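Example record used in the benchmark description.
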Amino acid sequence: MDILAQIKGGLIVSCQALPDEPLNSSYIMARMAYAAMLGGAKGIRANTALDILEIKKLVNLPVIGIVKRDYQDSPIYITPTMGEIEELIGCGAEIIAMDATNRLRPDGECLGSFFRRVKEKYPNQLWMADCATFTEGMEAARLGFDLVSTTLCGYTDESKGVEVPDYRLLTDLVSQCGKPVVAEGRIWSPEALKSAMDCGVHAAVVGSAITRPMLITERFVKAIG
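Model output (structure tokens):
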């Protein structure tokens, strides 16, 4: 619970770079995370055990760990299987996040079955549910996730076309799910961050607007046509 208290009311900065991006480097992600800490971040979200291990050398903030990995038989790519869970346990991620949508995981496993297995094996680990809809957030809370996030809102078939950040979704989850809610997804400005926090969320994650300069540049270039 001390970990949840540390991030309460704060900004979590997502420091990720996929293999095809110019900043893909554990060294660079660690420096990004260090800069975020100096800027006042209360936590870091990071992808892969290698990045997390490097980040922990420089940063003493709680880390929300994920492993993004594609499987041919499932659309789920955020911590899809027990293999990714083991990697994140091994690197000491304080919170492990996973796709908590209603889609089937690799080998056709549903979220409920998968989460029961991982929670039974690691009962003292903190778990965050990356959801896309209100129904998914409520189900994640029922299953026993420690935090519910809106990470995947707008990225699944059921949530396509939703304007993100979805402040109504945040407000509804805060008032009804009974778990700390984390706002995440397309928070591009300090004003949007403030609006998300005003919904009563426990914390908020900002990634691309801070740590992905290629995307930031593309937004500026698009603005001038």
